[in-house]
Write a structure and sequence with these properties.
10 strands; six-stranded mixed β-sheet
Length: 394
């Protein structure tokens, strides 16, 4: 039974009031009822789509937003909201078309130009994306999303100076923003500039995320009245990243510091030093430090790294070749793919995985194949590695 106009208006007012207080869950069925009663009302469809966007129901928001954009052809907001929904759903081509319509309706809008740039970038049209970011910033030179997004795009294209310039400009506006500092730090470190990059990289510890942090004061190099816990910051201590960071970074401390490395059971059998399992009581510890903060705290440089300490495990080569990469191994050789047998290998080749670091720590001739986006600890230089005497980076 159709509702009277007064009833529809009453439901709409109730829905708007609930949405205004942030109660989108109870507002949504009311907006849906209004849209069902007035299926040709662009405004009702637009409101329904918007509240579903607020609820994260992007697939459900698409249909009312598409219809709203048809019924409101001169409303740039209808096109922009549709584009935002389509972008989240991965339909960047349709999102770009909606943003082009919004641009025609509202030329000179920095936010629309920024969103066009994002859509173009997602479509791989990077030259046009840079132009769109340039346009957005020519309208509003303080538009932080465009500065940071253009910086990331320029970095991917190898324009490090341009990317750094954008991040420096962004940081003049928000000097304490940890995300901006981390982005600049990773950019500098990726180019081998540890001197400027390590300090900014510490901003990662200020950001929320799936990171392990023990309930201990953070060590800043001061004298301690107890033990120092060194730990991999990965939440999963058994992960390849945690194993690799422990093998690579647990080094360089003054002997006067009573350091204990938190590691997996597997590594504890190999490391020649004090270790502790994750979850064990930390009552004897005075402070803690994530392994990835050691280069900054101790002033390491790529050209002056402390040597790795010895391992309990010793190399016993028998002629086999450790092969830890997807590349085709050489013919007529005995290939070993089990990391537990790494000590029996006469040489090892592979990607940046724990087995490679273990082999290099054992003094086995090892070749590491860098990925297209290598960890800053190992890149960007190739050739003999300063991390291990027996390691060559390809």
């Amino acid at each position: 039974m159709a509702l009277f106009d007064s009833q529809v208006q009453s439901i709409a007012r109730d829905a708007l009031q609930r949405a205004a207080t942030g109660d989108f869950a109870s507002a949504e069925p009311l907006f849906a009822q209004v849209a069902a009663e007035r299926p040709n009302s662009g405004q009702a469809l637009h409101l329904l789509g918007q509240v579903r966007l607020k609820l994260g129901r992007f697939a459900d928001a698409r249909e009312p937003l598409e219809r709203a954009a048809q019924f409101l052809p001169k409303d740039p907001a209808a096109q922009v909201n549709l584009a935002g929904c389509l972008s989240v759903l991965g339909d960047h081509a349709s999102a770009l078309a909606a943003l082009d319509r919004a641009t025609a309706l509202k030329p000179g809008d920095a936010a629309i130009a920024h969103n066009r740039a994002r859509a173009l970038d997602a479509l791989g049209r990077t030259d046009e994306a840079v132009q769109a970011y340039d346009e957005a910033l020519s309208i509003d030179h303080r538009l932080l999303p465009s500065l940071t997004a253009r910086a990331a795009l320029l970095a991917r294209r190898g324009d490090w100076l341009g990317a750094l310039g954008d991040l420096d400009r962004a940081l003049t506006m928000r000097p304490d923003d940890p995300r901006l500092r981390l982005q600049r730090g990773e950019l500098l470190l990726g180019q081998g500039d540890w001197m400027r990059g390590l300090g900014d990289y510490e901003a990662r510890l200020e950001l929320p995320g799936d990171r392990y942090t023990p309930d201990l004061p953070r060590w800043h190099g001061e004298l301690l009245g107890g033990q120092l816990l060194l730990y991999p910051e990965q939440a999963d201590i058994e992960s390849d990243a945690a194993l690799r960071d422990t093998l690579l970074l647990a080094r360089g401390l003054d002997p006067s510091v009573e350091a204990v490395v938190q590691c997996s059971e597997k590594l504890a059998h190999w490391l020649d030093g004090s270790t502790i399992r994750r979850g064990a009581p930390l009552t004897d510890f005075a402070a803690a430090l994530p392994l990835r903060s050691l280069p900054h705290l101790l002033g390491w440089t790529p050209d002056a790294l402390p040597p790795p300490p010895p391992l309990r495990l010793k190399a016993k080569p028998d002629g086999r070749v450790g092969w830890f990469t997807s590349a085709t191994p050489p013919p007529d050789v005995t290939i070993e793919r089990d990391p537990a047998q790494i000590a029996r290998c006469s040489r090892v080749e592979g990607d940046d995985v724990p087995a490679i670091h273990l082999a290099a720590r054992l003094g086995i001739p090892t070749r590491l194949i860098l990925s297209a986006s290598p960890d800053w600890l190992l890149g960007p230089r190739v050739g003999p590695s300063p991390w291990y005497a027996s390691l060559v980076v390809l």
